[in-house]
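Please fill in the sequence for the structure shown.

STRUCTURE ENCODING:
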């Protein structure tokens, strides 16, 4: 999936962005209003360019280019003059403040495509493309302080605009893991007796069965093994880390 981030800014350089009524986006109003919805870029170049070049406001640009594309217009790396002009138009001091004014970023499950993920890791992929290839879990794990200060410094230099300083903050900045319903016995049996990833286990057996792996009734050895593999200490911790059951 190609994101709109670079596309939007490149287009914005060649045209004066429209004047926008700041009454809908002022800092003071956002202190009391609910957060704006996070809009995912649909991958359609035409509507995005039409919104940027036309007499469109924030909402129209987000609908065409996604929240990521809109907020990236306020990235300080594009220069102080650009930031000053767009801050006056839209009311955000920078892209970090723009992200903070929106709902959490939608969770993306890892699709078990190791090649695509490695390509994203070793390229200059933006967040959307990275999560599309490696999942939200893979993206947020890069902010893990356990990997050392130098590693975290490099990650923050590239993705510090989201305001995350740790993997915990990154997870908190996304919606929770989706709740997956049980499908059938055959699908579950394929993953139940294998060292499957969380995504594969839930896809085969459902979230309820996955979280039940942390039931202390199965013995301390089993619980220790599951906790070391998946990170949850109790059934309750696992359930709380997912969206509510439908």
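FILLED IN BY: designer on duty
SEQUENCE:
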């Amino acid at each position: 999936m190609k994101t709109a981030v670079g596309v939007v800014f490149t287009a914005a350089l060649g045209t004066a962005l429209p004047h926008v009524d700041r009454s809908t986006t002022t800092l003071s109003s956002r202190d009391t209003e609910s957060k704006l919805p996070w809009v995912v870029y649909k991958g359609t170049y035409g509507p995005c360019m039409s919104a940027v070049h036309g007499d469109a406001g924030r909402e129209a640009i987000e609908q065409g280019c996604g929240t990521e594309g809109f907020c990236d217009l306020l990235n300080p790396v594009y220069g102080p003059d650009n930031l000053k002009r767009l801050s006056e138009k839209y009311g955000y001091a920078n892209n970090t403040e723009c992200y903070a004014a929106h709902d959490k970023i939608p969770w993306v499950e890892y699709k078990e495509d190791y090649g695509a993920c490695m390509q994203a890791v070793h390229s200059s992929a933006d967040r959307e493309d990275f999560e599309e290839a490696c999942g939200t879990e893979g993206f947020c794990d890069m902010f893990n302080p356990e990997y050392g200060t130098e590693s975290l410094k490099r990650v923050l230099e590239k993705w510090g605009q989201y305001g995350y300083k740790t993997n915990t903050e990154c997870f908190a900045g996304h919606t929770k893991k989706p709740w997956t319903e049980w499908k059938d016995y055959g699908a579950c049996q394929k993953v139940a007796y294998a060292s499957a990833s969380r995504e594969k286990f839930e896809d085969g057996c459902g979230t309820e069965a996955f979280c039940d792996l942390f039931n202390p009734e199965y013995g301390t050895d089993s619980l220790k093994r599951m906790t070391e593999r998946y990170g949850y200490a109790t059934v309750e911790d696992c359930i709380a880390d997912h969206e509510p059951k439908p």
